[in-house]
Amino acid sequence: MHASEREILGQELRWAAVVAGIVGVVMVAILYAGLALRTNPPSNLETVDPKTLHLTAEFSEPNLGTRVEPNGQVTTRMVTAQFAFVPRCVVVPANRPVTLRFATPDVIHGILVTGTNVNTMVIPGFVSQVHTVFTRSGQLLMPCHEYCGLGHSQMWATVNVVPESEFKPDADGRASCAP
Ligand code: CUA
């Protein structure tokens, strides 16, 4: 039995209508989420000028790395740049809320910390912020996962998660990896 050309055309058009319908439903869902529910990319919308990043109080080099704020909040700041993280290694305490803040002076980078749910893009002009609790101690690899240029595959850092008893910030509240 051979289907006639007319029958085949009919089937094709029916499937095309199904696909167009699905695309339409998805488009409506995206517009509804964005406009009516105000669902935006999961990040705090905080802007920073990438051209003067290194001159800002927050992302100047002496202020990078891990710091325990006076209220006890642990904040780790890093600059992601072609093709390195500054600093290359950060130390954080296990089982304690940690806020990670990233900014970039050049192009889009992406970071993830292996074995954790930390995963975000770092976009010029914005501060990327992630709240997390590291539950296991150890040296965790943090590679760049957004292609950012020829040195992309060499771009990575280490997150050294230490038990809270070994987390010893200095008088300023700063903690850094052993040299
Ligand atoms: Cu930075 Cu890839």
Topology (SSEs and partners):
Elements: H1 5-36, E1 65-68, E2 74-81, E3 84-86, E4 89-93, E5 97-103, E6 109-112, E7 119-122, E8 128-133, E9 138-143, E10 156-162, E11 174-175
Parallel strand pairs: 2-5, 4-10
Antiparallel strand pairs: 1-2, 1-11, 2-3, 5-8, 6-7, 9-10
The protein binds dinuclear copper ion (CUA).
Dinuclear copper ion is lined by residues 109, 144, 146-148, 152, 155.
Entry summary:
By secondary structure, the chain is α+β, with helices and mostly antiparallel strands. It has one helix at 5-36, and strands at 65-68, 74-81, 84-86, 89-93, 97-103, 109-112, 119-122, 128-133, 138-143, 156-162, 174-175. The strands form 3 sheets. Strands 1, 2, 3, 5, 8 and 11 form a 6-stranded mixed beta sheet that branches.
Characterise this structure:
The chain is α+β, with helices and mostly antiparallel strands. It folds into 2 domains: 1-40; 46-175, Immunoglobulin-like, CATH 2.60.40.420. 18% of the residues lie in helices and 31% in strands. The protein has one helix at residues 5-36; strands at residues 65-68, 74-81, 84-86, 89-93, 97-103, 109-112, 119-122, 128-133, 138-143, 156-162, 174-175. The strands form 3 sheets. Strands 1, 2, 3, 5, 8 and 11 form a 6-stranded mixed β-sheet that branches. The chain has a 3-stranded mixed β-sheet with strand order 4-10-9, with no helix packed on it. The protein has a two-stranded antiparallel sheet with strand order 6-7. Bound molecules: dinuclear copper ion. The site of dinuclear copper ion (CUA) has 7 residues, from loops.
